[in-house]
Amino acid sequence: MILLENISKIYNHSSVALKNVNLKVEPKEFVTLVGTSGSGKTTMLKLLTREEDPTEGKIFLDGIDITDLPRSQLHHVRRRLGTVFQDYKLLPAQTAYENVAFAMEAAGRTDEEIQEDVPQSLDLVGLSDKINNFPHQLSGGEKQRVAIARSLVNRPDVILADEPTGNLDPINTWEIIKLLQKINDLGTTIILATHDKEIINNIDKRVIVLEKGEIISDKANGKYLV
């Protein structure tokens, strides 16, 4: 379970990214964060990974206060969180296999684990036939699938997806959303940040609307009609 208690993030007196946010995300939920640019979506995801620290408040992951964890212990938290970004963040000189394997190497996994798990992860996202392709040989949708495979390979409890379809055409957008739904059906919590109203209104999951750093709406099976 993820719990945010009275979270604020203030960069300076004229830039308040989040203001007194309280939020609970249960295991295996699919949650969509929505709002215009600057509403606080990305900041919230960065706080969950401790890429940034809150100005005020506490963040708990399964009862552990991650806001108080020393940096030396953050790798334990980050292993439980997979991240997917709009711009893929793939290593251009490495194949799909090597990009996914890199995440396992960084987590200290053995060569045997890597050889077994990387092909399984790429198979799950439908890229078994692209395992030796480099990023420049992949379409945008395929690059994002590699990124999702990389986020999955260490078996995280939660995937944080920050505008993962922002660079994709409509067909690839829906393929990625269907893939995230499939991963959620398999038991992984998904937190998806997007501004795409069509996505939000068609996946029929919990919708949290942010505006100027505050939660203004939180509805199960919600729609975004603003």
Fold topology:
Elements: E1 2-12, E2 15-25, E3 30-34, H1 41-48, E4 56-61, E5 64-65, H2 74-78, E6 81-85, H3 96-106, H4 111-124, H5 140-152, E7 158-162, H6 170-185, E8 189-194, H7 197-203, E9 206-211, E10 214-219
Parallel strand pairs: 3-8, 3-9, 6-7, 7-8
Antiparallel strand pairs: 1-2, 1-4, 4-5, 9-10
Helix pairs in contact: 3-4, 3-5, 4-5, 5-6
How does this structure look, described?
By secondary structure, the protein is α/β, with parallel strands linked by helices. The protein has two domains: 1-80 and 156-226, 3-Layer(aba) Sandwich (Rossmann fold), CATH 3.40.50; 91-155, no CATH class. Helix content is 33%, strand content 28%. The protein has seven helices and ten strands. The protein has helices at residues 41-48, 74-78, 96-106, 111-124, 140-152, 170-185, 197-203; strands spanning 2-12, 15-25, 30-34, 56-61, 64-65, 81-85, 158-162, 189-194, 206-211, 214-219. A six-stranded mixed β-sheet has the order 6-7-8-3-9-10, sandwiched between helices. The chain has a four-stranded antiparallel β-sheet with strand order 2-1-4-5, covered by helices on one side. Helix 3 (96-106) packs across helix 4 (111-124) and helix 4 crosses helix 5. The longest helix is centred in the C-terminal third of the chain and has 16 residues, at 170-185. The protein starts with a strand and ends in a 7-residue tail after the last strand.
Protein traits:
33% helix; alpha/beta; Rossmann fold; 7 helices; globular
Q: Approximately how much beta-strand content do the residues carry?
A: 25-35%
Count of discrete structural domains: 2
The oligomerization state is: single chain
Spans with pLDDT under 50 lasting ≥5 residues? none
Shape: globular
Mean pLDDT: 93
Q: Give the distance, in angstroms, between the N- and C-terminal Cα atoms.
A: 29 Å
